[in-house]
Amino acid sequence: MHFKRAAALAGLLLVSTMLSLLLAEGLARVLSPFPDAHDKLWMLGSPTFQTDDGGAVRYLPNQTVRSVMLQDGEIVYDVRFDTNDLGFLDHEDYSSDGERPADARRMVFVGDSY
């Protein structure tokens, strides 16, 4: 008898929680201060990607990369970048022609624009 009552209470709790979440979602969508998220956004880039030996994606070396963002048929931004000899967005070439000693210390910084 206790099992049926516990199952009924758990079911009631689940249904009431789901209804509360659906109500909160509906209110958040109606009362949202943010603009309509259905605007068409397009981000376009040049087909200049490659994968290196380690499987990392980078740009082709010594290329001009173009990145464009369109919203509702209007250009939001249109930017061009130059890549270096290793395929990175940089003005300086970092060729590995043995200029540095093999035991030289190197520092790598990885980040995200977001």
Structure report:
The chain has 114 residues and is of the alpha+beta class. Helix content is 25%, strand content 25%. The strands form 2 sheets. The protein has a 3-stranded antiparallel sheet with strand order 1-4-5, with no helix packed on it. A two-stranded antiparallel sheet has the order 2-3. Strand 2 (49-51) and strand 3 form a beta hairpin. The longest helix is centred in the N-terminal third of the chain and has 29 residues, at 2-30. It is elongated, with a radius of gyration of 27 Å. The termini are far apart.
Short description:
With 114 residues, the protein is of the alpha+beta class. It has 1 helix and 5 strands.
List keywords for this structure.
single chain; 114 residues; alpha+beta; three-stranded antiparallel β-sheet; two-stranded antiparallel sheet; 1 helix; 25% helix
